[in-house]
Amino acid sequence: MTAPSERWSNITFVLLFAVVVVLFLLVVGPFLLPILMAAFVVALLYPVNDFLCRKIGNRRRLAALLSTVAIFLLLVAPAAGLGYLFVQQAIDLVGRIEGFLGPEGLGALAQGELPEALRPLAERLERLQIGAQLSRALSSAATGLARSLASLVGATANLLIALFLGFIALYYFFADGHRIVAQILEATPLERHYTESFLREVRRVSQAMIGVNAVTAVVHGVLGAVGFAIVKIPSPMVWGALMCLFSFVPLVGTSIVWVPAALILLVTGRYVAGLFLLAWGTVVVGTSDNLLRPLLAKGRMDLHPLLVFVTIFGGIAAFGFLGVILGPMVGSIFTAMVRIWKRDFVPRMRGGS
Fold first, then answer.
1. N or C: which end of the chain has fewer CB within 10 A?
2. What value does the CA radius of gyration of the chain take, rounded to a whole number of Å?
3. Positive/negative CA dihedral, 55, 58, 59, 62
4. What does the CA dihedral 218, 219, 220, 222 come to, rounded to 10 degrees?
5. What is the largest CA-CA distance in the chain?
6. How far apart are CA 55 and CA 27, in angstroms?
7. What end-to-end distance do the CA atoms of the chain give, in Å?
8. How many C-beta atoms lie closer than 10 Å to residue 16's C-beta?
9. Going residue by residue through the chain (353 aa), what tens digit of pLDDT does each one get?
10. Global pTM?
């Protein structure tokens, strides 16, 4: 093959490869989150799976199946039990609110109207000239609730599909993870020790951040349970467990639990308890979130404390849910590349000048 034809062949291949990569990302994009989450879980538990594999005679696929089933049981069974308790508590809570507002109170709220029990409060607010804003807020909330309920079925179906694909990916990553890593090493034009260094960094940061987020979630759950117990909300441990789960959700986080609870306390006339719960969630729970993640991650990654803080919150802004892990991972790989550049490339450039 002549040089010009070889050059055009290479250009054509690169262009076609770029098009296929874009199409591939469009295909897998909607389910990239559960696949990446499965990869992070495998990075954390791969040594455990290897130990199990050795114990059962190096039957890797059987070990992968057992590990996947164990993770499924450890995650889904507690979540199902917690969901059942949450529904029971929610039914009880709705009954309490209905008892306070009267038989037509919840129906009036659903239509964006003000129940009889809340009219004295509205009259006080009217004196502060915010009664009209309250009525508009109720109407907007009713409309938003109707739209949310309409999309709930579709969201549930997508969640089930994502969970199914996540556990399928979990099994194959456990079974073939060593081959996937070997193929990455072969396909990368970098020198092998550089690629291995980056993969070690990815694994170390994944393990560190999953551990950091797990500890932070437990602390949030405990603090939430304490706050709910102080204001005497029934079953504070259940609500604390919900805060533990929602701690993994960026931006909204635990506030999706304690903010509605505080508002319900205010609506039902428990003003001191409601204000206390708002302050507890904002100051105690919120401050613990902002302090714990950077402090716990600081000693487990080669990142300056400032970079730990910035990459966690910058990652959330850039990548959403996965940003808690991807942000510090990008920061760690960046600092590793800077070290390699200073160690291997700068001396060569200075020596060649």
1. C
2. 26
3. positive
4. 90
5. 89
6. 38
7. 38
8. 10
9. 556 777 788 888 889 989 998 898 888 877 777 888 888 788 778 888 888 888 898 888 999 999 999 988 887 777 777 667 666 666 666 566 555 555 554 444 444 455 555 555 555 555 444 545 555 555 555 555 555 555 555 556 677 787 888 899 999 999 888 888 788 777 777 777 777 777 777 777 777 777 788 888 889 989 988 999 998 887 788 788 888 877 876 666 788 888 888 887 887 778 888 889 889 988 888 888 777 777 776 666 667 777 777 887 788 777 776 677 778 778 877 887 888 888 877 887 776 55
10. 0.62
d(CA 62, CA 141): 51
Tokens of 328: 């510090």
